[in-house]
Amino acid sequence: MEDKRELTYKNSGVDIDAQDRALARVKAIARSTFTPGVLSEIGLFGGLFALEPDREDGPVLVASADGVGTKLKVAQMAGRFDTVGQDLVNHCVNDILVQGARPLFFLDYFAAGKLVPERLTSVVEGLGKACRENGCALIGGETAEMPGLYDGEDFDLAGFIVGVVERRELLPRDVRSGNLLLGLTSTGLHTNGYSLARRLFFERQGMRADSRVEELDSTVGEALLAVHRSYLRALSGLLVRGRGVTALAHITGGGIPDNLPRVLPEGVQALIQPGAWEEPPLFRYIRREGAVPEEEMRRTFNLGVGMVLCVEAGSAGSLKAELESRGEEVCTIGELKEGPRGVVFA
Length: 346
Prior knowledge:
This protein is an alpha+beta fold. It has helices at about 15-30, 70-80, 80-95, 115-135, 195-205, 220-225, 230-235, 255-260, 280-290, 295-300, 315-325; strands at about 45-50, 60-65, 100-110, 135-145, 155-165, 180-185, 210-215, 220, 245-250, 270, 305-310, 330-340, 340-345. It folds into 2 domains: about 35-170, CATH 3.30.1330.10; about 180-345, Phosphoribosyl-aminoimidazole Synthetase, Chain A, domain 2, CATH 3.90.650.10.
């Protein structure tokens, strides 16, 4: 009999609350290492380091590290490895973009139980493609073969990015009640929620990567391997002072409820209108077939919104028009109001 119990990220093997508790302890350790150039606390999308700490208008390096998660397992099942390299670069580019930075260079870490040269080459081809598209140099990395730590041909992939922004152009800035929230569309799950999605499609429903799902108008592999998009080109020139953008939030693990508060000051709350955008079929399918509770969906997936812009109300119309002229699908998904820092769904 098919298992119809509700799926959650936790019973799929990922405990976000446990991660948050561990990170609280990690922050204290990291803080003890800070030198005068550090401008940020742990917990922002990227870490900030001023090359000249005493200058108010000097350059600030923005650095971030991330991985692709268990999307790698889907890539293995599908036998396709170039897209995960693109995912990794684009994810990291977005994480420093939210602080106003343009990428400078990127490094990768590839570790496997058994090194398959063609697989490594395919991954690096994806890294190179995304780096070129983002104007980012791939300057090095590390390849490790560790049988015993990784089973068979299992592998892991991580990336490290450094970008730069002038100190006066750092985001967030002037975030306040009355700002409107604009959402830019995602291209699928991006790089989060795959433990839950894999459990649904491959364990519960017994599908394969090449199984076709008419509702999705694609195979499972095609739907789940859709590349995590970069928002750098879409937002080029729109983040400088005077254009009305006060903050950006990259919607990754934790969804809107966990990521948007990272750029909100105390006393400012985000009010989200869930019906303001059309949710892609993939998310509707996962919710229904996995009996996933709504709160779990919101905290596990981006639900079709991959980047949120906080904008001054008077600039929202012109920004939306400019983004649409660039081919972007944009919708007003909510607003900021006075209240405890966090997210409320209307």
